[in-house]
Request: fold
Amino acid sequence: MIDRRSLILASVAAMLPLGASAAWRLRQPAPKTVDYGPAKLDIYAPEDATALPVVLFVHGGTWQSGKRSQVNAKPAFLLANGFCFVSIDYRMLPEADVATQAGDVEKAYGYIRANIAQHGGDPNRIVGMGHSAGCHLIALTGMRGGLPGVAALLLDDTRAYDLAALAKNGGMVRAYARVFSDPAQWAALSPISYVDGRKHPPTFIAYSRAPGRGEASKAFAKRLRATGTRVTLFDGSAYTHMSINRDFGDDGDALTTAALAFLKSTVG
Reply:
């Protein structure tokens, strides 16, 4: 006999695309929510987990919107593949500027590194992951040394690696122009400013077909590779800026397959 809840879940799954339906069947786990200081974060971990690698996710939203619950199939997929998953909130514009947001990311990382072991995670195998504005914040904090001991970075689709180059190429418009209105701050807020002679953590860079994403990502990857850093560049031109994040964890998704191979080879 099928109860009402099961019937509803089955009906919803049937209306979703094939990949999304497969991800739905993984059943989204319930997180443990904690306050790390400036904001809250959600920790997803398998029962009885011990020393599992961790993916720390920073959401997008043009630095002014979004929330930690917007993770789609990521937690279920990553837990099923032997990871813990953490998604954070950070303070939004106009309450907090981008420099403050980067500080929030670093505080969240510090909290997780100090406390994830009690939830079954390995503090020495944390991967920083972000999409859009979150991608920029993870790249910025990771490159400038604000995530000490981070094992790898998974960067998903931003144009904000080099703000001066973005302005030169005509990309400092709309949200970028509002958020990065002061040219005096561009160097400090550009991840590429911190790519110097030292080797950085292994970095996976994905880009969508949205304007300028491919060019910015390739230029950033080239600079990183020149330092001897291991870089995986993923051509996501089959994706929109939103689908390259939304589809992660869906069955058969190309980015998911490539990113999982990267994760397994670095922290798995």
